[in-house]
Design a protein that fits this description.
This protein is of the alpha+beta class. It has helices at about 30-60, 70-100, 155-165, 180-190, 250-255, 260, 275-290, 290-295, 295-310, 320-345, 350-355; strands at about 10-20, 30, 100-105, 110, 120-130, 140-145, 170-175, 190-195, 215, 220-225, 230-240, 240-250, 270-275. Strands 1, 4, 5, 6, 7 and 8 form a six-stranded mixed sheet that branches. A five-stranded antiparallel sheet has the order 9-10-11-12-13, with no helix packed on it.
């Protein structure tokens, strides 16, 4: 309907993720560390109750005034409860060691940095949304229990192309979507990406030896450090962000007088993603298009601000990924309807024509 009414601009899209609290409290979310601690505490309590039962058995002439020793029957009942609880926790531990964490009320929810409301960590879902720039109408979304946004840019680009019926568009996203393989896939399908580049990490001790000061020589396939020494390509390693080419020069670094300012280890390594050539093109485009890129937050945060802050929809009532996705459909459908009413305003005839009335 929005496509037929030409309410989507179809040229510029902005994508971002936001956290909605799940119907599962933090106390009902467990990881292997917390479960092992709870099991250790239960083992301690079981030992204490067994000692109490043994002590009662030895006290044959216990007087009525002696209230320090617990009742044997009560000890047996508490002991059985603790054993049952231990069995349940051990089952949860086995599952948590396979999956990383377990939520007992909503099994699909995960612990994430939710942000805002003074709640740094909560059990949530991550809702990744693509919004069209023309009228800030939602194009599509995906609810996931993955805490970060990495790896979802291509998915949202494909969804947007299908909904809008276009081959390519300009896609704005923040540094959370800066994934080389994902960006290259989008570029190859005709989607022009503008994405902020994350700051390089590493063990540098001074700004003089930050990663940005190491210049890549494409012809020689090496990095030239601030001391004008060459770091040669050695191997390809796989990291969380994908495969990287590793550059180093142990002999030169060992003899360098400024090694202590450059790195904490015995020599400096520089990592270059396999997709860095394509990322360089995106980085240049993002810098040159910074005026457009600044509009990213104005576009994509509009639905989040309306739904979460104005309407107060910050937590799911349903449980499970399928059901919370359905709940999100209703909320975002309501948002798009509300936006349409605001767009047409007093133009009742145009609004009626849109709905075929």
């Amino acid at each position: 309907m929005l496509n037929n009414a030409d309410l989507y601009g179809k040229e510029t899209q902005a994508t971002d993720g936001t956290k909605f609290r799940a119907n599962n409290s933090r106390k009902n979310n467990h990881n292997p560390t917390t479960l092992k601690t709870k099991i250790a505490n239960i083992n301690k309590q079981i030992t204490e109750h067994l000692n109490a039962i043994e002590k009662n058995d030895k006290e044959e002439n216990k007087t009525k005034e002696d209230t320090k020793l617990p009742n044997p029957q009560e000890c047996q009942e508490l002991l059985q409860k603790l054993k049952n609880k231990k069995v349940d926790l051990e089952k949860l531990l086995e599952k948590a060691e396979k999956e990383g964490e377990v939520s007992t009320v909503d099994p699909d929810a995960r612990l994430m940095h939710s942000g805002g409301d003074a709640r740094p960590l909560d059990v949530c879902y991550n809702t990744i949304t693509t919004v069209d720039a023309k009228h800030k109408l939602i194009v599509d979304f995906e609810v996931t229990n993955q805490a970060n946004d990495s790896g979802h840019l291509q998915t949202m680009s494909n969804k947007t192309r299908e909904v809008l019926g276009v081959e390519g568009f300009t896609h704005l996203a923040d540094k959370g979507f800066y994934d080389g393989e994902d960006i290259v896939a989008c570029e190859q399908m005709g989607v022009l990406c503008l994405i902020a580049k994350p700051k390089a990490g590493g063990s540098k001790k001074s700004e003089e030896f930050s990663f940005e000061r190491f210049v890549y020589d494409k012809l020689l396939d090496c990095y030239v450090c601030p001391c004008e020494q060459k770091l040669q390509f050695k191997r390809v390693n796989k990291y969380s962000g994908g495969p990287h080419r590793v550059y180093e020069n142990y002999v030169v670094c060992r003899a360098c007088l400024k090694r202590g300012e450059c790195t904490k280890s015995s020599y400096r390594r520089v990592y270059r993603p396999l997709y860095q050539d394509a990322l360089d093109v995106v980085d240049v485009r993002t810098r040159e298009g910074r005026v457009l890129y600044r509009k990213r937050s104005w576009i994509v945060e509009h639905p989040f601000g309306t739904v979460k802050s104005v309407w107060g929809f910050k937590a799911f009532l349903c449980r499970g990924l399928v059901k919370v996705t359905g709940e999100t459909v209703l909320a975002f459908l309501a948002y798009n309807f509300r936006r349409v009413f605001n767009i047409f305003g007093a133009d009742r005839a145009g609004l009626a024509a849109l709905f075929g009335l």
